[in-house]
Every structure is written in structure tokens, then in C-alpha cells.
Specification:
alpha/beta; Rossmann fold; eight-stranded mixed beta sheet; 10 helices; 27% helix; globular; disordered N terminus; Esterase
Amino acid sequence: MPILPRAAGLAGLLAALSLPAGAQEAGRAPQGPLTIARQGSFFVGGRTLHSDTLSTQPAYAPSGTVTVDQMYVRYQVPADAGARPPLVLVHGCCLTGKTWETTPDGRMGWDEFLVRRGYPTYVVDQAWRGRSAAHPTTINAVRTGKAGMDTLPTVFAAGQEDAWTIFRFGRRHPETFPGLLFPLEAQEEFWKQMVPDWNFSVPSPNPSVTGLSALAKRLEGAVLVSHSQSGIYPFQAAGMSREGIRGIVAIEPGACPAADWDMAPYKGLPILVLWGDFVGESPRWAPRLQACRDFARTANAAGGRVEVVVLPEAGIRGNSHMLMQDRNSLEIADLVLGWVNRNVEAK
């Protein structure tokens, strides 16, 4: 990674990285054995409830006690972590923690790369997603006639055609943006990552948000790295409590805090809001970028430390919404780590 003086700022690092994607990515992936001090998994959060609609199958009792709303966390801590802050990676809509693992075309994912760069790395599955499983009580209540159809939970799946434009592979399916860096030759592998999304059915407050707050406290200081749907979650967690939150990296957030929010939770907190390419050509994403700029302006006027970076404005072009899987994904990871090195104090 280019080593720059702290005062050089993100613009200096961007200039150093703004070479063609192929030239930057070649040789960037570390080689050799991966040495870790420890690895494992655990859950944060969760609540216990009793239900009479756990099952409609004769072999399983309908009544019983289950635990729900827990958030799954998988982690690796490198042997040379030193005082580097842990990084918590949170996926977006219709996806799981797989977002941060091996890319669809088989390249090193951020989860491994960040560990190889010396950072303890924690990858979560949002509550009710992946290994943070949902519970079927409301569905079975309707199935057994104990509740009306209007009580069914809202769950949806994003079709490939719709996701194509949401992830900004092109203006419409199957067109592609010129110079797109997402590896579309491996799109079938990418589509396999998509899962049903229960986000509109989770309780309030969102258990993924409370889980992130609990995880940051447990780690005694972490940088929360969110993407898309989860983009607002670290901000909401900071609104609950700043304890343990040492920085926020929001990658193409579905929402930033509104400019009329209370900015006190963000005073002095290092925040990077990072955007890829083609945003201005997306009716979905262009207003969200503007809202993040409005938030940054208001937060910084109140003592915040918010940077909004749009990669093509710094000469890095072609990135989709899935920056962590694009062909220059490790270049972007190094950019983020450069920002963390300059802005987030070591433990």
C-alpha cells in the first residue's frame, strides 16, 4: 500500500491509486500462507420467545421456545494485528456475509485481504438472513388459521433483471455501462449469492443495528463497514451509543442520516462515505449521494469528520455498486485501509 503522510489526506491516496484497474490489481493480492492467531464464530443479541406456531409438521411440536433476532458473526484475527482496530463488515440487501468473501470470479475477497493486511476482521450475517435465521411463527399462524393473511411477514427476492440496475451493471438489463469493472463473465456465481430478504419484517429497533452496537462494545473499539441496505446501520448504532464505535465506513449507503437529524452522535467520529461510478445515471442512487453530501455538510458544521468520496471524481472509473467484488476490489480495500490508518487511532 502506498505510504503517505497523514496530512496528505484521502485525495493524495486516491491520486496514488488512480492507475488502470489491471495495473493496480496485478500483484496486489498477498501471496503465501495466511497466519492467524485465532478464528471462530459467535452470535450477538437475540431474544427468547414461546410460540404455539413453530411447526405444522407432525414430527415436530407446534409449541415451544426458540431464540430469535440473533446476529451471526465470523471472525479471523491475524497474528500480527498489534493495535490495529477490528473491522466489522456488514452486507446489503438480498445478500449475506458472502459479499465479502471470494469474488464471483474467484479472486481474493476483502475478508481475507484485510486479515492479510493485519486487521482483525469480523463478517456478519444480518439478523433474519443467512446463518442469522428468521423464524416461521407468523407464517405458521396463518397456515393453521390462527391469524389472518394480513399478518404474513413481508419477504421479497430481487430478480436478476431488477438487481442489474440496482447494482449498476447497466442502465437496464442486459445493457452494461462502458468500462464496467464488475466481472460479468462470472455473473451466474454472483446470482447464487442472492437470498430472500426479510428486512421489512424484522422488529424495531432493527436487531442488526442493536447487534452492531453490542458487537462494537464487545470488541472494545471497532470500525463498522457497511454496504447499501446496511449503510445506515452504523449511524443508527452510534445514535444508540458511541461506545466501541471508533469509525464508520459506509460504502454506497442506502441512506445517510438526514441533514435535520441530531448530529451530536457523529461529532469527532471519523466517517468515510464511499461511492463508485455511474451514480449520476441512476434515479435510485443519485438522490442518495446528494443526501449523503447534505449530511456531511451539516455534520461537519457541527464538529463532524465526514468525508464523501466519489471514485470517478478522483480518476477511478468503472466501479459498480458492488465495489468489493469489482476487478479493482483490492485497490478499493487499500484505499479504505489508508483512510483508516490516517483517521482511526490505534487501540
